[in-house]
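MODEL INPUT / OUTPUT PAIR
PAIR INDEX: 1
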Amino acid sequence: MFTRMRRAVGVLAVALVAAGCAGGTSIGANPNEGADGTGEVTGDIRVSWWGSGPRNELTNAVIDQFTQAHPGTTVAGESADFGAYFERLNVQASSANLPCVTQLQGRQLNDYSTKNVLLDLQPMIDSGALDVSEIPPEVLDTGRGIDGKLYMIPYGAAYDAMIVNRTLAEGAGVGLPADGYDWAAFGEWLAAAQPGLPEGVPAVNLGGGLPNNFISYVAGRGESLFADRQLGFSEDLLVEYWDMWERWRAAGLTTTPAVNAEEPEQTEQRYVAQGEVLADNLPGNALSPAQETLDGLAPGQQLVSLPLPSGPAGSGNVLFTSGFSIPTSCANVPTATAFIDFWINDDEAAATFLSNNGAVTNSRHLQQQLDDPNLPELKRAELALYQQIVAQEPVSVVYPPGYQASFENAFVRAYESVVFAGTSTRDAARAFMTEVNAALGNA
């Protein structure tokens, strides 16, 4: 499959819509109307997050730091791996039983915010109970709903990067793409590199069906991904994007569709980590595990991460954030607010968690981690690239409810119809936009 996102989340969000409308629950009732997060920080709260192993240990360590800083509080943690986490979350949402501090991602946020199960967090900021002054505005905005209200405080920012095998590039005589390169320059770089690559190693993994590549393309062109619960870009732009990939595929610069479809999702098994392609779009925090894998397979080969190609409107990078929300059903808003504030502002807590779920969004903490001489160099490279991307003021995409269920699956299918069934890019784009606009309108 071309997409690397977990499709289960989008399907589960549909279940949330149905469950959230069922009778006999208290969803929609807001006992904390007007709550500003002030008041006595005491009593019990529940905190939920996705992850396992080291992330659980780090999160529990921060929880211990919070309860030590706030005697009289008790925090019960709830964790699960990504898919199971959202399955449980949707059941909790349908019964007004979400944890007082609920971890969400920007791409799923509006599946919940539009069902009136999350509090607007701006009153907590206005009261001074929640300090977001160290989070750049472009990053904070990723926690907003389609109504403009702030429903999530982002604490970890992920981004896509172009992972390039520097050793193969230098062997091919092309080096790395120039700073500020765009998609046209990227195509020229691929074409120049291909003749000098080892036999059987294509210049780039076929990415025409990867939604994140297209999101980058839209951002660089200055068009909107969504507008008023509909697609915000033109059909012509999508045709232009797919035509670009089809030219590269016809020129033999990409993996074949069949080979691409067989690629495992695990970072360590990705083709660029195996030394089997020159370049590919991977999450920025994939550099470390990918390099560790390559070290075992091809000692001496070095991977580097670059920003995604830019466009006439500027940066092509978009941030994907994780953060904390407070549900309307929370009975202890002051302590929930204090916990989020502690998580995003306490220096010791930030040093403990150490950007385990994306780059830390607090700019002071980010610089502290970059200045740490003991920080592993690959981790430093990941955080430094995030800092570079934020300095370019990336656009904030507000994802409508039903995004993953409606957009990503349809995008993959549409491009597969081009490469496997011979559908024209125009017909595929038209069918995709009709399908997705109808689905988003009904979400």
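PAIR INDEX: 2
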Amino acid sequence: MDTNGHAALMYPGRDVVTELKSAGLDAVSVSLNAESEEKYNRLCRPVFAGSYRAMLDFTRKAVASGLRTRMTVVARQGVDIKECERIATALGASFRAR
């Protein structure tokens, strides 16, 4: 499944990662998109405040639940791909620049 990782903001009070795992999902790809909240907000223009932190939290929970978790970023000028990879691997996810 591909996601922006904003589930906790969209469905407060639900444990979406656990629900996905219980439904049989075994892998998730999370769009990291940028190495900082400021850059993420500028590039993605998220609807919810705190979207960057929510995306990182979703990734942590997905990894902890045993889901194969990958974070991705679009290779574009101004995005620090190496820092994005460091963030992904620090969270326990694999990484792919696309």
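PAIR 2 NOTE: Residues 51-65 form the longest helix (15 residues).
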